[in-house]
Amino acid sequence: MKNSFKFSIKNIILLILLFLGIFLLLPKLVGVEKALLLLVKINKYYLLAALIVEILSYASAAWLLGIIFFRLGYKISFLNRYKLGSIAAFTIHFLPLGVAGEAAFEYSYLKKQKINSGTVILMWILRWIFNYSGFIILFLIGLILVPTYPNLSFSPKIISFTILILIVFTVFYLVYLYKHKNKFWKAWNGIINFINKIFAKFKKNLISDEKIRLVFEDIYKGLSLFGEKKRSSLKAVLAGILYWFGDMLCLYFVFHAFGFSVDFGVLIFGYCIATFLGIISAIPGGVGVTEGSMALIFTSLGVPSAIAITAVLVFRLFSFWIWMPIGFFSYLSLSKIKTFKNRFGNSN
Q1: Alpha-carbon distance 332 to 337, whole Å?
Q2: What secondary structure, in 3-state letters, does 220-245 show?
Q3: Which of 41, 50, 117, 157 could bond 253 through an S-S bridge, CB–CB 3.0 to 4.6 Å?
């Protein structure tokens, strides 16, 4: 575990070069004259608003974490929950194991607070479920709004409608599986076995049957905990929505800072598709994939290319890059902090 906390010098150098490369390419991508004109005319008040909503987005992530821990019988201060949420931009790049390094640090930190392993795993599962429930809800809203945009070509409307049907079907299917535990187990076991076959080809460690069953039971345990408290579930979903919506609002205000009023359906659609591509790319933070796909999608949806590229890069500066030093200080702070855990029992 300790080795996972050693800084990766290679990752630091590569990340700095990538950061410089992306932002030094800006004038070449949009033209020096256009880039300077956009930056000179930028509205600083909208930029400030973008930064504020991004800070509030991370506050929503801290709120979600607080709701989950409270339901599991633990109380953690808001400041420390905020720090936990902010370290990701730092740890996924500066610890050798990437996302696994972030999880390892978080696990080690929570264990120091006398929180047992099962609770930590359950917290991860619940945070993932509620976080991406919020993402899906906003994505659905965007897919519904896209066809109403008058100046949009027919092709994006068909694509948005198709994705909408697929998501709705998937959600109903997952609800059906949850209500039929044996069928859910067969589907879950089938997916993990498929993953194990891929791991075997690359000579990776396989997921044991014990872990497969343990995680499966943890999912049900976590969902039943929140199922008994509808208000807690609604708050958790709302916190997930606010987390993603704050990030989207940041992009919305950045567009306005460059004098462009983007349709909300187009904004949500472009943001969600690019974010999804960044997630499945398996690249920590979706660096490069998110920026490139987001700029391309917005350009194809009618946003002027110069504004699309510039706005996306500034947005990523606010939503990702500047959180690295903040995450670093949070990392140092949480590494030194003493036990603050307060066990008060589960209120079933």
Answers
A1: 9
A2: HHHHHHHHCCHHHHHHHHHHHHHHHH
A3: 50
Q: Would you say 164 and 144 are in contact if contact means Cβ atoms under 8 Å apart?
A: yes
Instruction: Indicate whether 140 pLDDT > 70.
Output: yes
Domain count along the chain? 1
> Of 196, 214, 193, which is closest to residue 204 (Cα–Cα)?
196
Tell me, yes or no, if the pTM score tops 0.85: no
Residue 204 binned pLDDT confidence (cut-offs 50, 70, 90): low
Polymer length of the chain: 348
Closest to 236 measured CA to CA, from 244, 226, 246: 226
DSSP H stretches of helix in the chain: 9-24, 26-30, 32-40, 44-72, 78-86, 88-94, 99-112, 117-145, 154-179, 181-201, 209-227, 230-257, 264-280, 289-300, 305-316, 323-336
For residue 173 the two structure tokens come to 């299917």
In the structure, what pLDDT confidence band is assigned to residue 30 with cuts at 50, 70 and 90?
Answer: low
Task: Look at 8-12, 41-45, 324-328, 337-341 and tell me which has the smallest mean pLDDT.
Answer: 337-341
d(CA 265, CA 325) in angstroms, rounded, equals 33
φ/ψ (deg, to 5) at 192: -65, -40
CA–CA gap between residue 323 and residue 198 (Å, rounded): 34
180 assigned to some structural domain: yes
Q: Is 83 in a helix, a strand, or coil?
A: helix
103 within domain boundaries = no
77-81, 106-110, 195-199, range with the lowest pLDDT: 195-199
| Residue range(s) defining the domain that contains residue 158 | 42-75+117-323
Output the CA torsion 237→243→249→254 (10° steps).
-160
Rounded average pLDDT over 43-64:
92
pLDDT value at 24 more than 60: no
204 located within any domain: yes
